[in-house]
Every structure is written in structure tokens, then in C-alpha cells.
Amino acid sequence: MEAVAVLDFETTGLSPAQGDRATEIAITRIQDGVVTDRFQSLMNAGRRIPAEITVLTGITNAMIASAPPASEVMRAAANFVGDCPLVAHNAAFDRKFWLAELARLPVSAPPADFACTLLLSRRVYPQFSSHRLGAVVAALGLPAAGRAHRAMADAEMASHLWMQLQRELCERYGVRHLQFAHLMALQRLSRHRVPEWAKALALAS
DNA sequence: TGCCAGGCCCTCTTTAGGGCCTT
Questions:
Q1: Which residues touch strand B (CB under 7 A)?
Q2: In angstroms, how far is CA A103 from the centroid of its own chain?
């Protein structure tokens, strides 16, 4: 499969539309089933972190105060990603912060496709009772990396999950390679249409 | 003062409601 970039944000809250901002970003680049590169940085967007978010992430206002400006970090992140398609767990969340933070830069970044390991996990492992990132990684026996709810630890876990999803689908449906577009198509389908997708995949391979 | 997102998915659904998931 072509290279992908797996992204995770820590933020001050759930909604950029409500004024929330990113506080940390981590990105891995995956090529041929291996993490080949990593990008990670705290960032200062000038927005105070609520106490309950600090409890969750461990990221404090003091840490942010000494971090580089969000604009600088996001410019570097966009350069790191380049034209790679993106992957995130509950990608709708990371996508809206990615777009909101990039929209503040004077230069526009190319729009990126976002694959979602949460949606794919629901399709591929419907028997799991929880599809939270940590729960899925634990259920699959994948390595947990560092403190959960820090950007690089979560990006690493999502990376392992992304690679496991590909291995599982290849093995289950007897195909050697999956394209990013195949997984994007799968995540858009309702669960009962997965067999249709698998049949089309087998015919195309 | 009190409130605060949004998209997906399931079902006791579809003229809707509520849980999950991200921080």
C-alpha cells in the first residue's frame, strides 16, 4: 500500500467551532507495514487548557507556555505529511482540528483523505464490545505505547491498529494488497454491506 | 443564568432517540 500518515491531536476540548485549539500533535508515517518516520510536538495556540483536560492528557498550561507557536508546528506538520493520505482513530475529530488549524496559516494545504480506524474497527471486528482505541488495541494484543491520551502514544497505537486491520482483511479475504481507497470504501459502508465489498475486492484482485 | 460538538450506528427506527467515540 502507498505510504500513509497516522495522526493524533490533543486539544483543549472537543470542538474548534467552540474555540477549542490543538495542544499537541503526533504523526507517524507508515510504508509497507512499517513505521518509517515520526513527527511530534506540543504547540502553543494561546488557549488555556481546562483542568479536566489536563487530568485526561497530562498536558499543562505551563507545558504549552514554553511550546512553539501553533502556526509554526502546523506548518512543519503539513510539510511532514506532504501528499500522504491520513489515518486517525475517530478521524472526524482529528480531521476537523487538522482543517481548522491549517486554515489559520497564510498558505493553504492540499485537502487530504482521512481513513478512520474507529469506523474500520466496527466493520472488521463487530464482535468487540468497545471500539475505543485503547480497548481495541488491548483486545487485539497490539503493543500499547506510552501514556494513553498523549499524542504520540495514541498515534503509535492507531498505527498498529491500521496495520493490523490491513493484515486481517488481506488474510480474511485472501488478497495480497489493499489500496487506501479500498479501506476508504469499506469504512463508508454499513456493516451489512461488508460482504459485498469483499466480493468486489476478490473480483478486482 | 445556563448552556455548550458532531458524525456514525443501532433499534423497541425511518415523522426519532440515544449511545459511542474523540479531547
A1: A 8-11, 13-15, 17-18, 23, 53, 56-57, 89-90, 92-93, 96, 118-119, 122-123, 126, 130-135, 149, 154, 187, 190-191
A2: 19
Cell of A38: 515520526
What are the helix and strand counts (H, E) for chain A? 9, 5
pTM of the model: 0.93
User: Residue A160 carries which side chain, given as an amino acid letter?
Assistant: H
* Residues A200/A201/A204/A205 CA torsion (nearest 10 deg): -150
**Using CA atoms, how far apart are residues A5 and A37, in angstroms rounded to an integer?**
9
Cα A48 to Cα A45: distance, rounded to the nearest angstrom: 9
Cβ burial, residue A48 (10 Å; 0-12/13-18/19+) = exposed
Pairing of strands A22-31, A4-11: antiparallel
Q: Which domains does chain A have, with CATH numbers?
A: 4-204 (3.30.420.10)
Tens digits of residue pLDDT in A156-205: 999 999 999 999 999 998 888 889 999 999 998 887 888 888 888 877 77
Give the contacts of A61 (CB within 8 A, at least 6 positions apart). A48, A49, A54
The identity of residue A80, as a single letter, is F
Length of chain A: 205
Instruction: Kindly report, residue by residue over A33-67, the tens digit of the pLDDT.
Output: 999 999 999 999 999 999 999 999 999 999 999 99
